[in-house]
Amino acid sequence: MGAPVGVGVIGAGNISDTYLEHLTSFPDVTVHVVGDLDVDRARAQADAYGVRAAGDGDAVLAHPDVELVVNLTVPAVHAEISTAAVEAGKHVWSEKPIGVDRAGAAALLERAAARGVRVGVAPDTVLGPGVQSARRAIARGDIGRPLFAQTTFQWQGPELFHPNPGFLYARGAGPLLDMGPYYVSTLVHVFGPVASVVAVGQRAFDTRTVRVGPFAGQEFPVEITSTVHVLTEFEQGGQAQSLYSTDSALRRQGVVEITGTEGTIVIPDPNGFSGRIALVRPLSSDDEEQVWVDVEQEGVVVGRGLGALDLARAVREDRPHLATGELGYHVLDTLLSIEESVERGGFVEVASTVGVVGAMPADFDPYARTV
Description:
This protein folds into two domains: 5-124 and 304-324 and 331-349, 3-Layer(aba) Sandwich (Rossmann fold); 126-294, Dihydrodipicolinate Reductase, domain 2 (2-Layer Sandwich). It has nine helices and 17 strands. The chain has helices at residues 16-23, 39-48, 57-62, 78-87, 102-115, 129-139, 174-191, 306-317, 325-344, and strands spanning 5-10, 29-35, 53-55, 68-71, 91-94, 119-121, 146-154, 194-202, 207-209, 219-221, 227-234, 239-245, 252-260, 263-267, 278-280, 293-294, 348-349. The termini are close together.
């Protein structure tokens, strides 16, 4: 076998823990360097996970053994950092969203194509055994032809746990851009590309207060719509109704229900990699009791980093990777179209499209050495 794929991480914030935990455990990749604007924080994360080198973002891009950059920066600079990696001749795995505007995201994909490198975009949760096992159940006809879906994400907001939550209420985030990628990606995996959307929204508060950590008590502005109701139409047929909110005292998250001609299936939270999958079939009479049937979950459960690993293996094996930049762009285009519908009213056609999204094999083993 050849050498594992060399990885460098840019962004040493909260989410880097789960990425580094898993990437340093996969034998097909080696994390060589962690970079951050705060070099001390990068060094601390590198030390915590046994990574030899640390520095700023430029140190990651200049590292000769880095083939794949994992971009964990804040959404506002996703496209900028990913483009810099592409220009350095590196493949890129980016946290979601791919960018905060269409122009920057499209330019990134154009430069990647010109440079002959790949772009992959989170979420990779949808590649986990939860969503993928449910997808296989739908594909084999367990609920017949899919007709419509209902998804829900509602709670009080990330200031309940995050020590610096302001960026999650800034442009490019909010419940729609921050959490929407999980739900829209799942729906595209099942129904195919989105054709059009219509939405309404509201903002409960113009400012919020940090609740935990060293900045507790400080106020920060809310730049985004904090509650959004969406209706979605898909190119190949099918519809969805979705709620995204950080204004709700009632916490209800991870709801994904897909109804077909022969039943309804409940999919695990798309912000996780596993969970219960169950379906119900139509009743034959009013007296019959509705019975839930569990669907077997197949595959090894890991965590964030799964998509980057699939990208790394795909590079070595010269095959398509699953969470492509084109899929990430279509999801972003859909979410921005939802924002535009909230702002001006009426249906908005989603200009982009994407091909059939590949499925993760049930026997994909992240802990096997394959390259």
